[in-house]
Design a protein that fits this description.
six-stranded mixed sheet; five-stranded mixed beta barrel; elongated
Length: about 350
């Protein structure tokens, strides 16, 4: 059984009072079809209409919310067609009212807004776009560990292993929006719990060159964590640099393959710490250096703090440069013969 969602661009061209058909203006529409499918549902048994209708409505609300979060100057009206022939049709109409010339429209960024929106949400594919779904999977739903790259207008997300992924500000805004957080889970993961026989929720843009996007039971844990995650909207960044400080390893995988560490600085334990010195990481990966709790590193350390509009503060640390590695040398243990020998070597008073 499948549910078919039709997204329509309605574009009005206007000049002065020639804005729409009421004034003799031109009308043109393009259509993008989305197939929303619950896989492995018995078509004979069907599903309860009162259970599936809210899911489709939230799917439409998800797209409308993304449009709002990103500030696209478009209005999305949502209609759901009556139940017919074993399928539900949810029709999303995207109406654009600010374009003066249809040719200029298709040359503009706004002409790509709908497909970009779907790619940012993770329902379509576009070069350079990871999408909300991929960010959630990469971080396993723990989306609070990120760094703003103001000089590049990008955001770097880190996972529990210290691996990183760089995304656009638009993707970041969607991930950190409570509107997206709530609707994403409810229309893409919650159906797998509501309908236990369903093996996946799939979203397909009805074009041959765009692959189907699936949400399966293996996604549930990460998306549950995301649904419960504390989000950081409208953040203010503060970075403090400490050059040439001494730290000791506390905890972590010291092979260099993972980068989420804890270190001791003075009497304090700092966590999570990312090692960003690639040359030092290569030494760890090759085994030339194997960190021990009593080793000492002289490093340049960045303290990265983020404060949101609710005064919640998140702190992460990054070792940007390892200036010196001081290996711990175990004190030599003396046996009785060494002690007697050393005693004989001591000059006697005459």
């Amino acid at each position: 059984m499948f549910f078919k969602s039709i997204i329509i661009y309605k574009i009005f061209t206007y000049r002065e009072n020639q804005g729409d058909q009421r004034y003799g203006g031109a009308f043109m529409a393009t259509t993008v079809e989305l197939i929303y499918k619950l896989e492995n549902i018995n078509a004979e048994d069907g599903v309860d209409v009162f259970e599936i209708a809210p899911i489709l409505m939230q799917f439409g609300e998800l797209i409308r919310s993304a449009n709002t979060v990103l500030g696209f100057e478009q209005k999305i009206d949502v209609r759901i067609r009556p139940f017919k022939a074993g399928s539900w049709f949810a029709e999303f109409i995207l109406q654009n009212t600010y374009i003066e010339n249809i040719i200029n429209y298709f040359k503009s960024n706004q002409g790509q807004d709908l497909m970009i929106l779907l790619a940012l949400l993770g329902f379509s594919v576009k070069d350079g776009v990871k999408g909300v779904a991929e960010i959630i999977r990469f971080t396993k739903g723990l989306v609070s560990n990120f760094k703003m790259n103001k000089n590049k207008n990008t955001v770097t997300y880190y996972n529990e292993n210290g691996e990183k992924i760089e995304v656009s500000l638009e993707e970041h805004k969607l991930v950190q929006s409570p509107l997206i957080q709530n609707n994403y889970y409810n229309c893409l993961i919650a159906p797998l719990e509501k309908f236990p026989n369903a093996t996946a929720v799939s979203i397909k843009v009805n074009k041959q060159d765009i692959p189907e996007q699936k949400f399966t039971h293996s996604d549930k844990e990460a998306f549950k964590k995301y649904a419960a995650a504390e989000l950081f909207e409208d953040v203010e960044d503060n970075i403090t640099t400490m050059n040439g400080v001494f730290v000791k390893p506390k905890r972590g995988s010291y092979s260099g393959t993972e980068r989420a560490y804890s270190f001791v600085i003075g009497d304090n334990v700092i966590w999570p710490v990312t090692i960003e010195d690639e040359s030092f990481l290569e030494l760890l990966q090759s085994g030339d250096i194997r960190l021990f709790a009593e080793d000492v590193l002289k490093v340049d350390l960045e303290i990265r703090q983020t404060k949101d509009s609710n005064n919640r503060v998140r702190t992460n640390y990054a070792i940007t440069k390892v200036k010196e590695y001081i290996k711990y040398e175990k004190p030599k243990q003396l046996n009785i013969n060494d002690i007697l020998k050393n005693k004989d070597d001591i000059p006697k008073d005459e």
